[in-house]
Amino acid sequence: MTIEIIRCLQDNYAYLVHDAATGDTTLIDAPEAAPILARLAERGWRLARIYITHHHNDHIDAVPEIVAATGAKVWGAKADAHRLPPLDHAFAPGDTLPGGAEVLDAPGHTLGHVAFHYPALKALFSADSLMTHGCGRLFEGTAEQMFATIARFNALPAETRVLSGHDYARANLAFAARYAPDASALAVRQADLPRLAQEALPTTGTTLESERLLNPYLRCHLPEVAAAAGLAGADPLSVFTAIRRQKDNA
Ligand SMILES: [Zn+2]
Q1: Which sites bind Zn(2+) 2 (predicted)?
Q2: Which residue, of 9, 32, 37, 120, has the greatest Cβ tally within 10 A?
Q3: Is 166 annotated as a binding residue?
Q4: What is the CATH number of domain 2-248?
């Protein structure tokens, strides 16, 4: 099985998961039809289905056009069905979907947000929850919910790749640098990101192992991170809440 990363709109990522043995192909999120349809045509793949992470326009707007062009079936969270495009299949956290995706509850950015974990691919499609070197803004959920979401993800194997919904890596890394990240991991990534930008390569797909060194939201239990947030001695949730608020005001 392989993953194709597709740049959409200004800074969104959509993903194709393709099984070469069966020809089965799934799209994760539908920000923009043209680049997604172009990639399918280029590869000669037939799209079987679309999995939706959450209801924001920049993740669902292209669903009707892609369905019209491909006949793909639409899958989304039952809890959010009222604000998603018409669903052919509704799922709930805990379900396992075709292709081997496990649906993980991921509230915080929105209340109905889900993530898709493919154990066989060692991949977590986290959209706007856990992101490269950061996490999504809290539009609907609480810091406590996002904290629990990220803690749930952090229990996955260290080599799991985090494939998020946006290319915010550069801004997130600049912010993460304030919170005592691992110095050598920071230096490597600071050198790498400009090269990725120059070569128009994706910034998404870092491992949990690397995020544990850089991403402040995975490091709230560390005394040096609490101190950097101005909350020496505070509990991890308080540190998490403070860092997320500091990001909103950054
Ligand atoms: Zn969103």
Answers
A1: 58-59, 128, 166
A2: 32
A3: yes
A4: 3.60.15.10
The two tokens of residue 222 are 């560390």
Annotation-wise, does 109 bind a ligand? yes
* DSSP code, position 70: H
In tens digits, the chain (250 residues) has pLDDT values of: 999 999 999 999 999 999 999 999 999 999 999 999 999 999 999 999 999 999 999 999 999 999 999 999 999 999 999 999 999 999 999 999 999 999 999 999 999 999 999 999 999 999 999 999 999 999 999 999 999 999 999 999 999 999 999 999 999 999 999 999 999 999 999 999 999 999 999 999 999 999 999 999 999 999 999 999 999 999 999 999 999 999 999 8
Sign of CA dihedral 127, 86, 50, 105: positive
**55 in a labelled binding site:** no
Residues in a beta bridge with 162: 124, 206
Q: How far is the CA of 193 from the centre of ligand 1 (A)?
A: 23
Query: Phi and psi dihedrals of 145, rounded to 5?
Result: -65, -45
DSSP code for 77: E
